[in-house]
Design goal:
Largest sheet: 7 strands, mixed
Helix content: under 10%
Distance between the termini: 41 Å
Structural class: mainly beta
Number of helices: 0
Strand content: over 45%
Order of helices and strands: EEEEEEEEEEE
Length: 122
C-alpha cells in the first residue's frame, strides 16, 4: 500500500510560479512512476507530467512543455514535485498525483492523491 498526499496549491496571477509537492509513503520501494494529472471543471482528466523513479525519465503534455518540470526525491522515491512556471489561466485545475507500483510478481497498482486546487487569475 502507498499513500499519496499533495500540497502546495493555491491562487496565483498569470506569469507567476507554483511548486506542487506529492508526499509518497508506505511501500515506496515498489513505486516506479509518479504521474501528475489535472482536471478542470467540465473537462476530462489530463496527463500533465510523469517521471520514472529509476531513470528519472520525464514526459510532459504539449501544453506545459518548457514551463513545468517534474522531479522526485529519494531512492526509493518518497516525494515528487511539479514546478510550474509562467502559469496561465488555462492551467487552472485540480492537480492530482498518482504513484504507480509494481510488485515482484509484476502486478501493478495505482495510488491516487485527493487532488489540490491551482487557480491562475489576475
Amino acid at each position: 500500500q502507498v499513500t499519496v498526499v499533495e500540497s502546495g496549491g493555491g491562487q496565483v496571477q498569470p506569469g507567476e510560479s507554483l511548486r506542487l509537492s506529492c508526499e509518497v509513503s508506505g511501500d515506496t520501494a515498489s513505486v516506479f512512476r509518479v504521474t501528475w494529472y489535472r482536471q478542470a471543471p467540465g473537462e476530462e482528466r489530463e496527463l500533465v507530467a510523469r517521471i520514472f523513479s529509476v531513470c528519472g525519465t520525464t514526459d510532459y503534455a504539449e501544453s506545459v512543455k518548457g514551463r513545468f518540470t517534474a522531479s522526485i526525491r529519494g531512492n526509493p522515491v518518497n516525494a515528487a514535485y511539479l514546478q510550474m512556471n509562467s502559469l496561465k489561466a488555462a492551467d487552472t485545475a485540480v492537480y492530482i498525483c498518482c504513484a504507480a507500483t509494481s510488485d515482484t510478481a509484476g502486478t501493478r497498482n495505482s495510488y491516487w492523491g485527493q487532488g489540490i486546487q491551482v487557480t491562475v487569475s489576475p
